[in-house]
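Our collaborator T.R. sent over the components below with a one-line note: 'Predict the complex.' Nothing else. No constraints on interfaces, no templates requested, no preferences about which chain binds where. So this is a plain run: every listed entity goes in together, and whatever single assembly comes back becomes the starting point for the next discussion.
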Amino acid sequence: MSRFWALQLRKLHLHRSPVATLSSFSTSASHSTATTRPSPPPIRVGLTEHAGRGVFASRPIAAGQLIHTAQPIVSHPSLSSIHTVCYFCLRKLPSSARSFQASQTVSFCSEQCEQQSKKFYDVEKKADWSRFNEYCRLQGLKYPLLVKRLACQVISGNVSSDVLDILQPEISSSDRISKMKKEVALLKSTFEDSDIGNEQMAFLTEEWYAGVLARIRINAFRIELAVGSYEDLLSLAAASVEAEAAVGNAVYVLPSLYNHDCDPNVNIVWIDNVDAKIKALRDIEEGEELRICYIDASMDYKARQTILYEGFGFRCNCQRCMSND
Ligand SMILES: C[S@@+](CC[C@H](N)C(=O)[O-])C[C@H]1O[C@@H](n2cnc3c(N)ncnc32)[C@H](O)[C@@H]1O
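Returned assembly:
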């Protein structure tokens, strides 16, 4: 075990973020009653032999069981969904709410979401994001939007600037680092043009931006909500022709510790908002590693290897790949 990962593992156990911790798991993951305390989710984080940290079953898990839920540290709607989903939880807004609120920049699905967004949104509202958003739109960039939101959360005092340090970073190429410089400059100048003081944005350096982006690139999830209604089905069909099917992107702590397998035993689903639900795809034994699939598992061996190497920087060591399937 490398000293680096041992330290990260210790930090994970000590880590207490208000939005994504072991204690934030939904009680629906366990068998609770009004009188008994909910049992903790049947998982533990440990070190794997060849893939860094991973998540393991601490008890047998039955096929179909909801293992736990998780809320994001940071999330953001995709630019194509910004007027059709809640700006906080990414829940689809009813059509009536969409047209009613079309004149507004963004909307929230409930008072609760509005309240939970208040701190970062009060910061965000002080600045004019049109140039930044336009740059992302033209360049087809989605992750700088997550960095922007994280920066607003940090400035508002909601989270610490090192909140993502626990996650594994990508090894960024020099080409990527130089492209990123323009994004940092744009983000900084947008804040500078508002009345946010220099001391509040002292954390916003090129180094911070690069570190955050390197973690987001490996750990962000693309949020596609489960199709719940005929209207959803139609808009999904339209989205696949016109724009992105994903309603947004989000970064979590625990879901990011699940390693990949081309024949996974668990999956992550988003039913009606950004809250992730981790479910067992088959019966799992105590001690077995829980793995999700990062990509489309129906691709052939070569295509999977290429995407995993180019997108996530690793050569897959799962059993399916080891047998060249
Ligand atoms: C989202 S992280 C998963 C958690 C990670 N193991 C950690 O310690 O933070 C993705 C990284 O885990 C490693 N990994 C995940 N699945 C793997 C696999 N099937 N084979 C080899 N490495 C894997 C790779 O280093 C990859 O970039």
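Summary for T.R.: The radius of gyration is 20 Å.
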